[in-house]
Design brief:
Number of helices of chain B: 13
CATH class of the largest domain in chain B: Alpha Beta
Order of helices and strands of chain A: EEHEEEEEEHEEEEHHHEHEHEHEHHHEEE
Distance between the termini of chain B: 34 Å
Strand content of chain A: 15-25%
Shape of chain A: globular
Helix content of chain B: 25-40%
Helix content of chain A: 10-25%
CATH topology of the largest domain in chain B: TIM Barrel
Structural class of chain A: alpha/beta
CATH architecture of the largest domain in chain B: Alpha-Beta Barrel
Distance between the termini of chain A: 24 Å
Radius of gyration of chain B: 22 Å
Structural class of chain B: alpha/beta
Number of domains of chain A: 1
Number of helices of chain A: 11
Largest sheet of chain A: 8 strands, mixed
Largest sheet of chain B: 8 strands, mixed
Number of domains of chain B: 2
Order of helices and strands of chain B: HEEEEEEHEEHEHHHEHEHEHEHHHEEEH
Number of strands of chain A: 19
Radius of gyration of chain A: 21 Å
Oligomer: heterodimer
Shape of chain B: globular
CATH class of chain A: Alpha Beta
Chain lengths: 481, 409
């Protein structure tokens, strides 16, 4: 069942949930896995945000790694998302890092390590969803929790998803139980420019600041097509796709002038500091390459228009989201280095989704474009492994030889790249953050379930141990009639 | 053409056959003749001239049956002109039968059957997005997913009356669940009164009734227990109210949604009421705070007759993923297969013709490359009423056009 992905109608106004955003440290498209960086820290995060256009620290991450023992998972099938599938493998986690991965003898554990018997089980990197509305369209889904679309004007680059995010959303523990360790929480797709995304560690927390991925750059949610037209067509506009384009262009023209003013002042400090403008501040960061554009866009022809828009203003579109027609322009996406975050099989619920096909991700992979499987849905986020499996097997049946490692990367390593975090998470390699899922069976099987989920080394979920099954405040005392 | 179809004999040989009505058969043959199943077993003689389908190493099952959706009634959810499932402005739409709104040319049909779904219940109203808010939604029709005309697709119509008893339908009761229950009883009482006093009604010698004559008339088969009534209810108290009203009026009740049914499986089983559930639904709302993945399994374990549904009509094909997840969350594999074949056929009263691979039944048959619930499995052959269905759809044509770029226009 699809929930709020399409539209929530409230008092005659259609509020549209929707699409995506981006992150920080990144590598060249298709390049080798980089050298692991130093552990990200709140200090690093503060440094990153302090950099923004000469403005001081803003809403810094207060994330702290949860203390946890050394963990050795042994004798499991380890899918690294870095090319290897190791039978009878072991993986050692210490201080939030992956220390070593390999066959038994290659992985030495200290005497005090917690040993997890992985016999008959599979291990993968933590699942990353680049397109979620958890926390901003929280359950139980009333108007009170509908905080995803600032549908008051078509350009709201000034709003930040983190300022809507509710850490007590009862959908969060459900996603954790599906193996998810990192999400991009996005504003919806009602607006041409919907605002900043939040890149979050998916952990129990009292505030969104405690969840903010240290060092992650923000994403900017943009939306093409039907949704902005529908929401604003009877209001201030835009009411057409050409109106949509004019709206983006007008916003970036203003932002470019703003960026020049601030960049000059930051360099020479001559005269008064220019006045801050929240909308332009965010868009200027896009123009500087510090915020990634995450663009809800379904149709191939519109994605080509958006690539032209990006060329006009000199920014990159990090990923098209939904992108049900990405397969029609897979060659162009490969050339541009723009990823496509897609569903395995959603299609047909609106006109711009009519041309969705099962082979979308596989055809992207075949063309050398970077494919990602995303959810945009509180149900789908719980089984991104299943969706990727579907997309892989449909591709194979159509004669496109997708490997298991490639399919795994669609919801781990490639997703990390979309967020600019591919040097930190997304694979099981020494030095990477210890975001790890233990599965009951092959994760590309419909019968597999996450048994254990480690986030930065913290055992945040254990299917067999109620002490490691987090509940939000909302759930306490509820639902047990 | 008719003579050709009648003469069609097809032998599916060598497969692992799940008749559902009995234990699985290895290296078995399913013989189809004149649209019906002519034989099933391990020692079936294949007649000369039969078309042979080698299913060695494959799995053969009955065609899957989706417990509820809007196939043919909802082409594009967001395009109002393509939606046919609601009689607007009438919240006791008992006389509204969806059948003639079904579009046999819907592109969803070819997409769905190519994935092994051969029959669906086309329901008025909506169990999914957006949920229906009226009291009585209308009459559902059971259709095979093949046929150029509505008549050719029709299996049973009406198959059931559909009503809502949940948070979304509260407006039909003046804003409270108690109001919905009271209104439902009043409509039922009025229908019975109408049946007793048709002459008085025609002479306008009765107090105004709570629904139009056609709608009251349409409820009479329900009140005689001849036509099942599907009640969409999720909260435990709503399920219990539906059971209570069902008992009061001696209805042939079917529950749909039933998200908190897992808390009272024995109660539902004791009432002899089957359920239509969607296993992959666990997002809490105030209508169902106790919703959980294990619902289907716990209901089945408690002795409830469980059929499955995928309510996103364009992805009716994901019914098998629903079934696989029901298994992952505790249903047995055999229960899950039954829940998408023979059980829904029983629930909708067509098990004499559909739902299993037995002699004389309509030949809706699927040959799979493996376990039907697994992603690694593909559909190899689909037969509906004994006719092999090409596994083509708008989507396969799009794929062929764009599999190499630039496309061939």
């Amino acid at each position: 069942m699809r929930h709020l992905s399409v539209a929530v109608t409230l008092g005659g106004i259609v509020l549209v949930a929707g699409c995506a955003s981006g992150g920080a440290r990144t590598t060249a498209a298709g390049g080798p896995t980089p050298v692991p960086p130093a552990a990200p820290s709140p200090t690093a995060a503060a440094r990153d945000t302090a950099r923004e256009g000469g403005i001081g620290p803003q809403y810094p991450s207060t994330y702290r790694r949860h203390p946890n023992p050394v963990v050795l998972i042994r004798n499991a099938t380890i899918m690294t998302a870095a090319g290897q599938e190791i039978q009878g493998g072991s993986i050692l986690l210490r201080d939030g890092r992956i220390v070593s991965v390999g066959t038994g003898a290659q992985v030495q554990a200290p005497a005090d390590a917690v040993v997890v018997d992985g016999t008959g089980k599979w291990v993968t990197p933590g699942v990353i969803d680049v397109h979620s509305h958890l926390g901003v369209y929280a359950a139980p889904g009333t108007f009170a929790e509908s905080d995803g679309n600032e549908a008051t004007q078509p350009v709201t680059a000034e709003v930040w998803a983190e300022h809507s995010f509710w850490p007590q959303d009862p959908q969060i523990p459900l996603a954790i139980a599906g193996g998810v360790t990192t999400i991009q929480a996005l504003p919806g797709s009602a607006n041409l420019i919907g605002g900043r995304s939040a890149i979050l560690k998916l952990i129990p927390a009292r505030s969104v600041q405690e969840m903010k991925f240290p060092g992650a750059h923000y994403g900017l949610k943009m939306a093409c097509g039907e949704n902005p037209k529908r929401v604003y067509g009877q209001r201030s506009g835009p009411s057409t796709r050409m109106g949509n384009m004019a709206g983006y262009r007008a916003a970036f023209i203003q932002a470019e002038a703003y960026r020049r003013r601030w960049d000059k002042w930051n360099k020479d400090h001559q005269g008064d500091q220019p006045e801050r403008n929240l909308r332009n501040e965010t868009l200027a960061e896009v123009l500087r390459g510090n915020i990634y554009v995450q663009n809800h866009c379904y149709r191939a022809d519109e994605m080509m228009q958006m690539l032209d828009l990006a060329h006009e203003f000199g920014f990159k579109i990090r990923a098209f989201h939904h992108a049900v027609e990405a397969y029609k322009i897979a060659d162009a996406l490969a050339r541009e280095g723009t990823a496509a975050a897609v569903w395995a099989d959603w299609w047909g619920f609106k006109e711009e989704a009519m041309d969705g096909i099962h082979e979308n991700a596989a055809l992207l992979q075949q063309s050398g474009a970077r494919a990602d499987i995303h959810s945009d849905d509180p149900g789908g986020i719980q089984r991104l492994n299943q969706e990727a499996a579907k997309a892989m097997y449909y591709g194979r049946r159509a004669g496109i030889p997708i490997t298991r490692d490639q399919a795994l990367r669609w919801f781990t390593a490639n997703a990390a790249w979309v967020l600019g975090l591919d040097s930190i998470v997304g694979t099981l390699e020494p030095g990477k953050m210890a975001d790890v899922v233990v599965w009951s069976a092959d994760p590309l099987s419909v019968y597999a379930q996450a048994v254990q989920v480690y986030n930065d080394g913290w055992l945040v979920y254990d299917r067999t141990d109620p002490a490691h099954q987090p509940k939000t405040d909302f759930t306490l005392g509820q639902g047990q009639p | 053409m008719i003579a050709f179809l009648l003469a069609q004999t097809i032998a599916i040989t060598g497969g692992t056959v799940y008749p559902v009505s009995g234990p699985k058969l290895e290296n078995a043959t399913v013989l189809i003749r004149d649209g019906r199943i002519a034989a099933v077993g391990t020692s079936v003689a294949v007649p000369n001239g039969a078309t042979r389908i080698d299913a060695t190493g494959k799995v053969v099952t009955p065609g899957l049956i989706d417990g509820a959706g809007q196939m043919g009634l909802r082409e594009i959810q967001m395009v109002q002109g393509t939606n046919e499932y609601t009689e607007r402005g009438n919240d006791v739409a008992a006389a509204f039968n969806v059948l003639e709104g079904i579009n046999p040319a819907s592109v969803l049909i070819a997409v769905s059957r190519a994935e092994g779904v051969t029959m669906t219940l086309a329901v008025p109203g909506s169990l999914g997005v957006p949920p229906s808010s009226s009291l009585i939604w209308g009459q559902a029709a059971l259709i095979d997913l093949d046929g150029a005309t509505i008549d050719a697709m029709r299996v049973k119509s009406p198959a059931a009356m559909v009503a809502g008893f949940n948070e979304a339908t509260k407006d039909a009761g003046g804003g409270s669940r108690a109001g919905v229950a009271a209104r439902l009883r009043r409509v039922f009482d009025d229908a019975l009164e109408y049946a007793r006093r048709r002459n008085d009604f025609n002479r306008a010698q009765m107090q105004p009734l709570s629904a139009g004559a056609a709608d009251l008339e349409a409820l009479l088969p329900v009140l005689r227990g001849q036509l099942p009534m599907i009640v969409v209810a999720n909260r435990r108290s709503d399920i219990e109210t539906a059971l209570r009203i069902g008992k009061e009026y001696k209805l042939h009740l079917i529950l749909a949604g039933t998200a908190e049914g897992w808390t009272i499986p024995n109660e539902i089983a004791a009432a002899g009421v089957p359920v239509l559930v969607e296993p992959l639904d666990n997002i809490p709302s105030y209508d169902a705070l106790g919703i959980r993945y294990e619902n289907a399994a716990l209901l089945a374990k408690g002795g409830v007759k469980v059929a499955l549904m995928e309510t996103a009509t364009e992805n009716t094909r994901d019914l098998r993923q629903q079934a696989g997840n029901a298994v992952a969350n505790g249903m047995t594999w055999d229960q899950a297969l039954r829940a998408v074949t023979l059980t829904p056929a029983e629930v909708f009263g067509v098990a004499d013709r559909y739902g299993s691979l037995e002699i004389g039944k309509v030949a809706n048959v699927v040959v799979w490359s493996g376990d039907p619930f697994e992603f690694s499995t593909g559909v190899e052959h689909v037969f509906i009423r004994g006719k092999e269905i090409p596994l083509r759809s708008r989507q396969t044509e799009l794929f062929e056009r764009y599999r190499t770029l630039p496309p061939r226009y």
